[in-house]
Amino acid sequence: MARSLNGQIISVDSMKVYQRMDIGTAKPPADKRKQIPYHLIDVVQPHESFSVDRFLVLANRAIAQIVSSGRPVIAVGGTAMYIKALLYGLFDGPGTDPTVRERLREQIACSGLSALHQRLAKIDPQAAQRIHPNDEKRIIRAIEVHELTGRPISQFQRQWDRSEPKGWTVIGIRRPKEHESRRINQRVKRMIDQGFVEEVRSLLNEPKPMSRQARAAIGYAEMIDHLENKTTLDEAIEVIKINTRRLAKAQRTWFKTFAHIRWIDMDPDQSAQTLLQQTLSLLKDSGPSSQGCGPE
Fold it and tell me: pTM for the whole thing?
């Protein structure tokens, strides 16, 4: 699509922002990034934290730059919260409280992240359903909001249930669950074949330790457990597959809250060229000034 429209791409992905985390995040190959400008890839070091607020600042800066050059913006993701923030802005929730966050981290160290996710499921089942059990940052934030306001974070996020975002055409690609599961298994095998174990080992050997956020990324968290002798390689690979399928399920739940996605149901044997024609047709029907934003 970017080639057809002479556009530029914004990555809407919370983990592709990290440098040297390449295989596990399935970044576009370097040769592709030389052909077409990509934005919001490799913008922070693995030891740094990254937030949706910072993403919005960088994304809006990139959008302004692309639009000023007269080229269309194609935002591709990825991370559902980042997509919603890009389309509608951040929800009007409370600020952060370092004391609350530190106490919750201490609880994680004592009882484990799964216990905190179970607590979230009791106070905000809707948020717990769409937040992955390994997503420490978002679990902490959801509980923090509840403690500070007495209200579940899902209530604040209802501001996102609004009219179609101005200036954007949102196109989603759906596949049958069975096909999606096969693709996940193939992807994990490809990661291992490409040297994922060594990529994670190299990250762990860097002078500054990986941030909590980077370590929690699916694939990296499980491989770190293996390299710390907590699991075998085969066990780590199977858990990566399981957690990726769970993430896919959580994303499907998230995207159900998007009221204005133009969905394309993709057959297993459908060609990329056919898919391109479908997306271009949807963009044409939406008007010449639309930008593209696509979840998959």
Answer: 0.78
